[in-house]
Amino acid sequence: xxxxxxxxxxxxxxxxxxxxxxxxxxxxxxxxxxxxxxxxxxxxxxxxxxxxxxxxxxxxxxxxxxxxxxxxxxxxxxxxxxxxxxxxxxxxxxxxxxxxxxxxxxxxxxxxxxxxxxxxxxxxxxxxxxxxxxxxxxxxxxxxxxxxxxxxxxxxxxxxxxxxxxxxxxxxxxxxxxxxxxxxxxxxxxxxxxxxxxxxxxxxxxxxxxxxxxxxxxxxxxxxxxxxxxxxxxxxxxxxxxxxxxxxxxxxxxxxxxxxxxxxxxxxxxxxxxxxxxxxxxxxxxxxxxxxxxxxxxxxxxxxxxxxxxxxxxxxxxxxxxxxxxx
Length: 327
Prior knowledge:
Layout: E1 3-6, H1 8-14, H2 17-32, E2 36-39, E3 44-45, E4 54-62, E5 67-75, E6 87-95, E7 101-106, H3 107-126, E8 133-137, H4 141-154, E9 158-162, H5 166-179, E10 184-187, H6 191-197, E11 200-203, E12 222-225, H7 239-243, E13 246-249, H8 252-258, H9 260-263, E14 271-273, H10 274-278, E15 292-295, H11 300-317, E16 321-323
Parallel strand pairs: 1-7, 8-9, 8-11, 9-10, 11-12, 12-15, 13-14, 13-15
Antiparallel strand pairs: 1-16, 2-4, 3-4, 4-5, 5-6, 6-7
């Protein structure tokens, strides 16, 4: 029995946006039809402080493929002050038939690729046709990944970038412009300008104070709220703005437990699962004037789909080390 090991560098080299978003779409249909089981994560706090470290095990089973995965996420907010990653994760993919561990994958690249791909799929599903301008709130690695993936895949003509640190926004705009020669890329010091002039807005920050309020919304806007870590004190969208939007999520049960954007709403929100829209079971946007919001939380069945995709490509291209964990 051998297990394939993939580094984040391996994942970057193997990934194709078009290939994986197609696989994600099929995965969401399978999930909507009951072919995938997702267990709500059970957080283990290592420190009782609000910013204390936590271990978050996440598991899912794909009945049709005969696969299950476990992702172990270590969420350590205090690492930011030390210049270390606030989150680290590893994904293990197993055969349901034999229990064999098929692969172990570092979670850094996989999580970024999965998150941006889900945002792309949500945007294709929910945003107005003909959208041309993307607004990015944040200037970190995940914001960079989203900007390039969405602008290329959706052929967007304009990109606006805002960050609390204007120097970060300027540097991010310069780097992204080099990768997107056909897109007009500009940094701005006004988050209001980003929202007012964008058809699609992605929030990609670990903010504990809401960045977008109801006054920034306009008819037809689509928002992807994808930056908050899985803790209730993190939120990017305020309550009034959330109530003004048609809400969508990966898994409604888990979103209500894990999302700070949803936890601070006074009234129980109505959430449509994105898989229900992708499968055709429920409508997404009703009119061109609707304001839609995809509240991304990241769930294990998406990690399973990404791990399976990467390991199949790695096997075909002979990428990654193979280790005999048991003779």
